[in-house]
Amino acid sequence: MQSAIVSRWRTIGLALALLALASCGGGGGSSSPPTPGSKLFIVDAGNHAILSFIDPLTPPGIDRVVTGSSTGLGSGVGSVFSIPSIALDATGDRFYAATQGNTFIFDNIGTADGNVPYSRLMSATVNTGGVDHGVNFFRIDLDKLNNILYTVDPLGEVHIFNSASTGSGSTPNRTIVPDLGTATVSGTFGIAIDVTRKMLYVGVDLPGPAHSIIVFNNADMANATLAPDRKVNFAQSVGSFFLDTAHDRLYAAQSNGAILVFDIASGLATGTTPAPNRTITLLAPVQHFIFVDVSRDKLYAVANPSSGNSTFLIVDNASTSNDAGPVFPNGPVFSITAPNIQLSAVAVKP
Questions:
Q1: CA 194, 51, 165, 79 torsion: positive or negative?
Q2: Angle at Cα 249 formed by Cα 244 and Cα 251, nearest 5°?
Q3: 100, 107, 226, 267 — which has fewest CB within 10 A?
Q4: Does pLDDT of 256 surpass 70?
């Protein structure tokens, strides 16, 4: 948020080697009630860990940390690309963590803690242009209604897997290869499925450099090399976006710390660089990775402004907040410090 806006800073010390073992206390005459499940999940890709918090609004500290050799999330010093994307099935209490080579599925994520083994593994091979290659699970999104996982690789190729929760399928059920003429995709920054409108949104980096979100209609059936039905452009590099399908609203997080908010996302004209309906400028002028809790109307953003120090913040009234007012961005900002920390994604249960 802008420096003129008063924000509450809290410091949370993170020590991945020292997990809180509050449930291991001494015996007594009465048993304590079970610890509630976590609702807020943040990925520290630098340490190959999933941090979770019981209180999603004003967390006093990190309640659980999933990390270790059994998790499959990796080891050593990572980067934001070690776990570049996640998907959360809140109803099923199921978490999907994409590590590019695979997607690891964790059941009962609300209570998962420590070196817990993943429940299932998604890995696949696909043939493109006559050449077999492994599917790169770079950016993912989940059609929760139909249990379908959508993933896009760094070159823009989309792979779609039915029965996502079972982790089954060594090959995708469908593949969409974008036909952009002579332009080639050099990177991707997100994917989102609007199940109701049957639209698939894919964030792509193109020569120029140029930054666009391409949209495919009839996404529930698409399975071919296709030209996108729409292409929405951005003047500034975008590293993350969130699609609020319930309200047809698009949030695009730029590399300068600004989040552009577009109402009626499904109606954005192709080939244009549209002006946003609102802009939320965050305190640090760096790339943030975002998630919107639609049920609470709060936007969550994580970032890595300096080595060993990362932040996550909550913007209240996300749907109406605007630098120009009358509803100004506000909410708490939290600092998490740890060696090698690199926050790459966030998700929240309603």
A1: positive
A2: 85
A3: 267
A4: yes
